[in-house]
């Protein structure tokens, strides 16, 4: 076994590897960019070395610099995690040349399986079932168009390298193919450094079922059962579970054996995942990920195994700890990926400081894998994942119930997140009934992403009570600083001589003003929202942002976080955002007119599709913006004339800057 390893990654996977290494008595070396100098993985490791500026191309993708750090620190092996250099055959070769163990598969296996086209040609020779498609090297548009016609629309255009949904487009008709190919090529080039594509028949309602495989250098290979990753948006996984529900045991076995055959066809070593599409009793190979998967914890929960430990043992030359007949599974597990993103804005990544970050308590049923802490920032430079929430129980229904509860308990303030969206999936009747496939989110989009509703009266009351109690505590603190500690004024309880006292607040719910009145009473308060019937409040207290009270006869617990004039209220998993009314600030926000189209997040302008003076219709694409290696289209909110274009292709833009100005046509 190794004495010291280097983790060539960051975030939650780096922390995950460090935890296992520490348990095994292995020292760890972290590498980090300048932006990550105080990151969680840096603090956890035994040693840490800065490898460059924030951009990944100048830090986490610098294999030569990372190898130099490994040699200088005496690390015997490098764990690449996932992403970055984890599936880079050139880096694996450089490790071998330097005498440093790459904790991953052989170089040729990475190379072959890293090409979707080449891997499918190899799988066809190994009799692994494939989706009908084109995996050839001829990439001219005429060839791709002809192959698409042969396969039959709809077809899936995919980047041959990489994964994560990048460089992938569904094309339903021939006249859509050119734009899809161009967009997929640009995205693939930006994400993976090469733009070759393949085509596949697009299946109507398939499930995404993948098999966890493990092989050693002694010729042994096993599968550690399967995971269902069908719930996806833009081809990126959202919630995963193990085992895959409602699959016949014979099918599970056949898929497992096919996955091991696929691994052995490339002389695989270490952890890998063979991904299949499953529909109507048939399954089809789509790709093999030659690394540990993001969703590996659900396999760990049902098997009781530590897959990182297996990686370390296999990489050090040991045999697999168990044979196929010794492997067992128990219960059911889910993993939900918590992201800083806005589901209401087509899942645009969000950035900002994690003002409050309180996960549910961890125990035998609940696990949280994360690489950030309260006070850290989610930046534009890296993947905006906040954490992976993993739950386990004896059966699927029980595990799903635990997932819903744990999501409701998760508190994140400071950035927009997908927590409520995850909760909507976990609570959807179709998800509970296992009516799932890769189109689940789009099919149920109206249920999962309903229009924003007005803030509930209970949340408004909680916000107002929090403001009142905070101001009362501030007043008492000021009085204590200059008054006798026995002074009756320290009570600050709203008492008035010969008159009823109340406290009025005006809160903005989006563009809507909401009025809240708090009446002081001998045993507490009464709260009236928008002139409605007053609700009695007793037993109210506020500590560390947690407000507890009996409100209108119901015991209520709410977290209220105030940042300047902004208030965030969390009750039972629902997040409400309010702003204390400030007329001058509101007037300033309204200046500038509706025709200014701003950048929804930091990124790079890929293409400008219009020019000044050009007339456009509502919904017309105006500009393509690349952010987090995904393309986003800036569209006209209404018909009008472009009066200004402020940036050109290749320009870097900050969130909130004016990209274009559109003179809206009078209706």
The side-by-side strand order for the widest beta sheet comes to 14-13-10-11-12-15-22-20
Strand content: 25-35%
Mean pLDDT: 91
End-to-end distance: 73 Å
Helical content (DSSP H or I, runs of 4+): 25-40%
Shape: globular
Count of beta strands: 39
Unreliable runs? 584-593
Q: Tell me about the largest β-sheet.
A: 8 strands, antiparallel
Number of distinct helices: 18
Rg result: 28 Å
Content-based structural category: alpha+beta
Pfam families: Biotin_carb_C, Biotin_carb_N, Biotin_lipoyl, BT_MCC_alpha, CPSase_L_D2
Enzyme class: ligase
GO molecular function, one term: methylcrotonoyl-CoA carboxylase activity
Domain Biotin carboxylation: 1-446
Task: Report on this structure.
With 667 residues, the chain is α+β, with helices and mostly antiparallel strands. The chain has 18 helices and 39 strands. Strands 14-13-10-11-12-15-22-20 form an eight-stranded antiparallel beta sheet. A hairpin with a 5-residue loop joins strand 26 (524-529) and strand 27 (535-543). It is globular and about 85 Å long. Residues 584-593 have low confidence and may be disordered.
Q: Could you give the topology of this structure?
A:
Elements lengths: L3 E4 L3 H13 L3 E7 L6 H5 L2 E6 L10 H11 L3 E3 L9 H10 L2 E2 L4 H8 L1 H10 L7 E2 L6 H11 L3 E5 L8 E4 L5 H16 L4 E5 L5 E9 L5 E13 L2 E7 L6 H16 L5 E10 L2 E8 L6 H8 L3 H9 L16 E8 L1 E2 L5 E2 L2 E2 L2 E3 L7 E5 L6 E2 L6 E9 L2 H14 L1 E3 L5 H8 L2 H4 L7 H4 L1 H4 L8 H26 L19 E8 L2 E10 L2 E6 L5 E9 L2 E6 L2 E10 L2 E6 L2 E7 L2 H8 L5 E3 L4 E6 L6 E2 L4 E7 L2 E6 L4 E6 L6 E2 L4 E7 L3
Parallel strand pairs: 1-2, 1-4, 2-3, 4-5
Antiparallel strand pairs: 6-9, 7-8, 7-9, 10-11, 10-13, 11-12, 12-15, 13-14, 15-22, 16-17, 18-21, 19-23, 20-22, 24-25, 24-31, 25-26, 26-27, 27-28, 28-29, 29-30, 30-31, 32-39, 33-35, 33-38, 34-37, 35-36, 37-39
EC number: 6.4.1.4
Organism: Azospirillum picis
GO molecular function: methylcrotonoyl-CoA carboxylase activity
């Amino acid at each position: 076994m190794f004495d010291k390893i280097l983790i060539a990654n960051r975030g939650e996977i780096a922390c995950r590897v460090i935890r296992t290494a520490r348990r095994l008595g292995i020292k760890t070396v972290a590498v980090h960019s300048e932006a990550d100098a105080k990151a969680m993985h840096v603090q956890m490791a035994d040693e840490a070395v800065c490898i460059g500026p924030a951009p990944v191309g100048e830090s986490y993708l610098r294999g030569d610099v990372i190898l130099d750090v490994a040699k200088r620190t005496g690390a015997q092996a490098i764990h690449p995690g996932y992403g970055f250099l984890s599936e880079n055959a050139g880096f694996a070769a450089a490790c071998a040349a330097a005498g440093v163990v790459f904790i991953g598969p052989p170089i040729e296996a990475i190379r072959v399986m890293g090409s979707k086209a080449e891997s499918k040609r190899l799988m066809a020779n190994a009799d692994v079932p494939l989706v009908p498609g084109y995996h050839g090297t001829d990439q001219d548009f005429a060839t791709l168009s002809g192959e698409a016609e042969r396969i039959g629309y709809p077809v899936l255009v995919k980047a041959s390298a990489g994964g994560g949904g990048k460089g992938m487009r569904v094309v339903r008709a021939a006249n859509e193919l050119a734009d899809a190919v161009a967009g997929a090529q640009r995205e693939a080039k930006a994400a993976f450094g090469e733009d070759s594509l393949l085509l596949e028949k697009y299946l109507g309602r398939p499930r995404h079922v993948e098999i966890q495989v493990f092989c050693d250098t002694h010729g042994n290979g096993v599968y550690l059962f399967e995971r269902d990753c069908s719930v996806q948006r833009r081809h990126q996984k959202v919630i995963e579970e193990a085992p895959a529900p409602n699959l016949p045991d014979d099918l599970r076995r056949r898929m497992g054996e096919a996955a091991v055959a696929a691994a052995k066809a490339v002389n695989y070593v270490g952890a890998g995942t063979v991904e299949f599409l499953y529909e109507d009793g048939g399954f089809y190979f789509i790709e093999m990920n030659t690394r540990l998967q993001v969703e590996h914890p659900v396999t760990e929960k049902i098997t009781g195994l530590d897959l990182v430990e297996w990686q370390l043992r296999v990489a050090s030359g040991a045999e697999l700890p168990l044979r196929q007949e010794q492997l067992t599974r128990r219960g059911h597990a889910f993993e939900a990926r918590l992201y800083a993103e806005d589901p209401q804005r087509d899942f645009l990544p969000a950035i900002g400081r994690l003002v409050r970050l309180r996960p549910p308590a961890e125990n035998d049923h609940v696990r949280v894998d994360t690489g950030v802490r309260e006070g850290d920032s989610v930046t534009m430079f890296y993947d905006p994942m906040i954490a992976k929430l993993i739950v386990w129980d004896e059966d699927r229904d029980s595990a799903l119930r635990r997932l819903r509860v744990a999501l409701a308990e998760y508190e994140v303030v400071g950035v927009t997140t997908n927590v409520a969206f995850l909760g909507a999936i976990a609570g959807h009747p179709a998800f509970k009934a296992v009516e799932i496939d890769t189109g689940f989110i789009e099919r149920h989009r109206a249920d999962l992403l309903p229009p924003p509703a007005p803030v509930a009266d209970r949340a408004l009351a909680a916000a107002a009570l929090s403001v009142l109690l905070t101001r009362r505590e501030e007043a008492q603190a000021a009085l204590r600083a200059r008054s006798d500690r026995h002074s009756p004024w320290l009570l600050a309880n709203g008492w008035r001589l010969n008159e009823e006292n109340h406290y009025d607040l005006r809160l903005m719910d989006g563009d809507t003003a909401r009025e809240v009145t708090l009446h002081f009473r001998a045993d507490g308060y009464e709260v009236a929202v928008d002139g409605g019937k007053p609700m009695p409040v007793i037993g109210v207290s506020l500590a560390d942002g947690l407000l507890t009270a009996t409100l209108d006869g119901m015991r209520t617990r709410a977290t209220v976080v105030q940042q300047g004039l902004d208030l965030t209220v969390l009750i039972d998993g629902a997040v409400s955002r309010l702003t204390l009314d400030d007329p001058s600030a509101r007037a300033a926000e309204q200046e500038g007119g509706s025709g200014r189209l701003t950048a929804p997040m930091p990124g790079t302008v890929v293409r400008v599709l219009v020019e000044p003076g050009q007339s456009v219709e509502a919904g017309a694409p105006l500009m393509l913006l690349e952010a987090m290696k995904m393309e986003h289209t800036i569209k006209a909110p209404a018909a009008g004339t472009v009066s200004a274009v402020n940036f050109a292709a290749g320009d870097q833009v900050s969130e909130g800057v004016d990209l274009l100005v559109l003179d809206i046509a009078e209706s």
